[in-house]
Amino acid sequence: MRGAALEFQKVSFGYGEEQLLDNLSFRVQKGEFISILGASGSGKTTLFRLITGLEEPGRGGIAIHGQMHANRFGEVGYMPQQDLLLPWRTIRENGRIPLEIQGTAKKEADAKVDSLLKTFGLAGCGGMYPRELSGGMRQRVSFLRATLSGSNVLLLDEPFSALDAMTKLHMQEWLLQRWEEERQTVLFITHDVSEALFLSDRIMVLGEKPITQLEDVPIPIGRPRKRRDLATKEMVCLQEQLLERFHVDAK
Amino acid sequence: MMTYKDYGYALVVVLFLGVGWEISAQIVNKPFILPSPSGIAMKVWELRSLLILEHLPPTLTVILISLFLSTIFGVGLAIMMYLYKTVEKALYPLMITSQTIPIIALAPIFVLWFGYSLWSKAAVAVLFTFFPITVNTFDGLRTSRKESRELLLTMGATQKDIFFKLDVPSALPQFFSGLKVAVPLSVIGAAIGEWLGAQAGLGYFSRRMMTQFDGAGIFAPIVILSLVGIVIFSIVVWMEKRILIWRKEI
Ligand SMILES: Nc1ncnc2c1ncn2[C@@H]1O[C@H](COP(=O)(O)OP(=O)(O)OP(=O)(O)O)[C@@H](O)[C@H]1O
Ligand SMILES: [Mg+2]
Fold first, then answer.
1. Beta bridge partners of A33
2. How many Å apart are CA B38 and CA A244, to the nearest integer?
3. Rg (alpha carbons) of chain B, rounded to whole number
4. Phi, psi for residue A151 in degrees, rounded to 5
5. CB-based contacts of B138, cutoff 8 Å, min separation 6
6. Is it true that the peptide bond before A210 is cis, omega within 30 degrees of 0?
7. Which CATH architecture has domain A4-76+152-250?
8. In this structure, which ligand is nearest to the CA of A44?
9. Which positions in chain A have a beta carbon within 8 angstroms of at least one beta carbon in chain B?
10. pLDDT > 90: what percent of chain A?
11. What is the pTM of this model?
């Protein structure tokens, strides 16, 4: 039996007067790849801020691997939309920040980062500074850093939205491959419907505010995936339905 | 990056001004009012051992002590103001006010407090130099990004982690800007301090020459003072480049 990696239990939250989440419950199984779709301002980033502990729910609870923590900082890996690499640190030094914070000795931390660089397509970049890297490479450093912090739950907030189309496709395939090797639990925010369809086991859609539930859209294709799997009639239909929804939402 | 070519332009201007000065000085021909560059150069050479062995050391000591003290005070104050809102509210206006007081007018008070010792001069110089260091460091600390801070928090960082891993490195470039402004000010401060009363020092020597209507003699120690400023400034730039190596253009 697989346990829940993440569970929202009747969570209510709002930044001010207005309720953004109202009595929201959902769960994510261990090892699932979930995409989160929703219009701009619908509360996607807010979900992540709640999970990481940057915001506290007004009511309800958030369990990570079945445990409710008083302080969730350090429990999950968070990859923000911008890479937020520290420009004065080399790639190796940027990657090891979570380990430094956890109190790992520098030498050990460096060795760990170095052992990962190749897997992340960053071989030979350890001593470089972020400004010397391309956008896609910087995102991979940011991803590496996220995998080193916290447990096996990864929150990725529109990680590829700033990349050009070609790099984006390349990064999607790379991410999928990484995930198939590691099977971490991934929550992936995106605006791109085809990206969500290609990557995830299921899509969670955020609707009207206040959000009382997330609409679940399972993806009916198996793994490993090829991009042409998206061209089946069923998938094209699904894509059109989703696009239609956002078109309506946008009005 | 400045290359020798960039310095070349400055050199041309200096040469141009120097030649103009030399010619006008020759025409006016009143060396006690307008000494010529060549006259000053000769004076520097003539007085070299007196200037460098006797009058440079006390002035250099004041300059270095004032830079050291204002770095310690300035950075300390900036950190306190950054960490504690109350300190900022209490001290920031005072600090600005301190810069509106004519420091030269305050200097006699320092002489009253510290006598004609080194400390009265250092106090004048510190009053000049702590301000750019404090303000720049404070602003530098505030440039650390909220998003980066939040990211570190999600990794479980403590306030101490955030301060040393994010705030301090964010503030370093600005701190160096402040220090670079402070270097020439420390030279001016030391010279002014010495005018008010001293037994030795380049500022003191320049003033003594004034009473003797020795035009070139007034300028000779000033040349040394400005060289000192340039050397210290270059050392700061060198340290800045070493420490902020990540900013280097590819
Ligand atoms: N710190 C904050 N204080 C007050 N309101 C906020 C704050 N952050 C977000 N909001 C509001 O909460 C709502 C949800 O914001 P959120 O950032 O979660 O949206 P999003 O789905 O991530 O949007 P986008 O796709 O544009 O990134 C928005 O209406 C936004 O204005
Ligand atoms: Mg967002």
1. A186
2. 85
3. 22
4. -80, -160
5. B77, B78, B81, B82
6. yes
7. 3-Layer(aba) Sandwich (3.40)
8. 1
9. 52-54, 73-74, 76, 78, 80, 82, 84, 86-89, 97-98, 100-102, 129, 131-132, 149-150
10. 51
11. 0.87
Residue A250: pLDDT over 60? no
So where are chain B's domains?
Answer: 103-244
Q: Determine the 3-state secondary structure of B75 from DSSP.
A: helix
- Given 3-state DSSP classes, what are the helix, strand and coil percentages for chain B, each rounded to the nearest 5? 85, 0, 15
Q: Which amino acid is at A205?
A: V
pLDDT at A26: 93
Q: Is B215:B34 a contact under the CB 8 Å cutoff? A: yes
ipTM given for this complex: 0.90
pLDDT at A1: 41
Q: Which mutation among A45, A48, A187, A205 tests ligand 1's pocket best, with the greatest number of atoms within 8 A of CB?
A: A45
How far apart are alpha carbons A147 and A111 in whole angstroms? 15
Please report the pLDDT score of residue B2 as a whole number: 58
Evaluate whether the domain defined by B103-244 bears CATH number 3.60.21.10: no
Strand, coil or helix: A249: helix
For A102-156, the pLDDT digits (tens) are 999 999 999 999 999 988 889 999 999 999 999 889 989 999 999 898 778 999 9
Residue A121 structure tokens: 């397509």
Q: Is B132 exposed, middle or buried (0-12, 13-18, 19+ CB in 10 A)?
A: buried
Partner-chain contact B156 A149, CB within 8 Å: yes
Which token pair is A97? 């920040």
SS3 A129: coil
DSSP string, A29-86: ETT-EEEEE--TTSSHHHHHHHHHTSS--SEEEEEETTEE-S--TTSSEEE-SS----
pLDDT tens figures, B9-56:
888 999 999 999 999 999 988 888 888 999 899 999 998 888 889 999
Residue A31 to residue A201: CA distance in whole angstroms: 10
Per DSSP (E only), the strands in A104-201 are 153-157, 185-189
